[in-house]
């Protein structure tokens, strides 16, 4: 939540005025000589002499402590308000603003309640927990203020955090599908009595067209930057000449055996070599990276190394296969973006695992501290 907007100005003014009033009353009662001339307290604000040695046991100190404890309770109710959506006790934005500014107001209240002293072990523990809660809360507030800008700059496309595992699984399936499409199909068993395939069909059938997996996945990065692939198809043979005219017997021209024998094996051999390069790259580097739980530990998790690696792979394959390399590179870019979003999400919410439980612990110990102070001292 951004705090530099008009909706927070009234709260800022209130906290500043309340801090000034609390400081004036505190110093007017316990250190009246430190007040400037003409700023003395009126008689009705001056407390009666107390037998308590510590400031916290005086009526004014108890007042500061009671107000701070009430704010602690209200701040804890904010967690309940976020989970109970049906409550109509103000919007979450108003609860958040009051949570932020009222807890900031507890800083002078707690300091004045303690009289600028730590006291015994119990009060020292309370002060330590209070410092942890306030520091973690201010840290989380700063993160919530800066993180949207950072995510907008570093993430070209953002997805729902809960969908990240599903998207990663989609990318892995697409990569495995491409790898399987490159591997040669096992030879089919033919019956002994079956007729042998004609040489013409054997030549023109060619290899299976290389499948593109671009349409198999739909991810934020893929939608932001679509990689259009091409399909490799075997070069057709020279078309047979057309029949001349009705009634004239023409014999189709037979292709040269040498041309047919030399054209196809060379192309098949080149395709097999390129596909072997891509299969090796997918199995050794890409798939382990895409399947890893923590992708930043792999070399492809580094954008510079990834660019160099894919540039090298493009140099090893023909032009017709480079669209497949770009498709694989898009998957790795997608994985890096998902890892970055996961890391930023953890940064944005990890502080709550410190702030929330210690806040409840502080509330319980403060209640015990108040009970002991009121009924045993």
Give a concise summary.
The chain has 377 residues and is an all-alpha fold. 63% of the residues lie in helices and 0% in strands.
Percent helix, as a range, is 55-70%
Helix/strand class: mainly alpha
> Could you report the average pLDDT, rounded to the nearest whole number?
79
Q: How many strands, which pairing sense, and closed or not: the largest β-sheet?
A: none
Task: Tell me the series of helices and strands, N- to C-terminal.
Answer: HHHHHHHHHHH
What is the β-strand count?
A: 0
Shape: elongated
Explain this structure.
The structure is a single chain. Helix content is about 65%, strand content about 0%. By secondary structure, the protein is mainly α. The chain has a domain at about 5-155 and about 350-375. Helix 4 packs antiparallel against helix 11. The longest helix is centred in the last third of the chain and has 35 residues, at about 255-290. It is elongated and about 100 Å long.
């Amino acid at each position: 939540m951004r705090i530099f907007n008009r909706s927070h100005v009234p709260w800022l003014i209130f906290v500043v005025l309340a801090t000034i009033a609390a400081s004036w009353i505190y110093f007017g009662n316990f250190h009246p000589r430190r007040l400037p001339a003409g700023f003395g307290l009126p008689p009705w604000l001056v407390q009666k002499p107390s037998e308590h040695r510590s400031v916290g046991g005086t009526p004014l100190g108890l007042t500061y402590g009671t107000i701070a404890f009430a704010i602690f309770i209200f701040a804890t109710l904010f967690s309940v308000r976020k989970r109970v959506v049906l409550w109509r006790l103000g919007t979450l934005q108003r609860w958040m603003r009051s949570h932020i500014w009222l807890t900031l107001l507890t800083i002078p209240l707690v300091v004045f309640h303690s009289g600028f002293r730590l006291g015994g072990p119990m009060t020292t523990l309370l002060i330590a927990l209070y410092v942890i809660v306030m520091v973690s809360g201010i840290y989380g507030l700063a993160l919530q203020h800066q993180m949207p800008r950072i995510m907008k700059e570093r993430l070209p496309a953002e997805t729902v955090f809960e969908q990240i595992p599903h998207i990663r699984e989609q990318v892995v399936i697409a990569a495995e599908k491409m790898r399987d499409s490159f591997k040669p199909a096992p030879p089919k068993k033919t019956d002994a009595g079956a007729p042998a395939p004609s040489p013409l069909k054997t030549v023109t059938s060619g290899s299976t067209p290389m499948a593109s997996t671009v349409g198999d996945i739909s991810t934020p990065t893929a939608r932001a930057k679509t990689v259009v692939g091409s399909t490799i198809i075997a070069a057709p043979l020279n078309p047979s000449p057309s029949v001349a005219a009705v009634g004239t017997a023409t014999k189709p021209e037979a292709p040269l055996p040498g041309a047919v024998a030399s054209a196809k094996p060379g192309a098949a051999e080149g395709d097999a070599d390129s596909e072997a390069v891509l299969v090796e790259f997918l199995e050794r580097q890409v798939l382990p990276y895409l399947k890893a739980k923590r992708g930043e530990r792999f070399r492809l998790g580094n954008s510079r190394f990834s660019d160099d690696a894919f540039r090298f792979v493009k140099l090893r394959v023909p032009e017709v296969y480079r669209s497949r390399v770009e498709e694989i590179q898009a998957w790795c870019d997608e994985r890096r973006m998902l890892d970055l979003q996961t890391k930023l999400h953890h940064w944005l919410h990890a502080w709550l695992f410190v702030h929330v439980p210690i806040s409840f612990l502080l509330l319980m110990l403060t209640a015990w501290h108040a009970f002991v102070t009121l009924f045993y001292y």
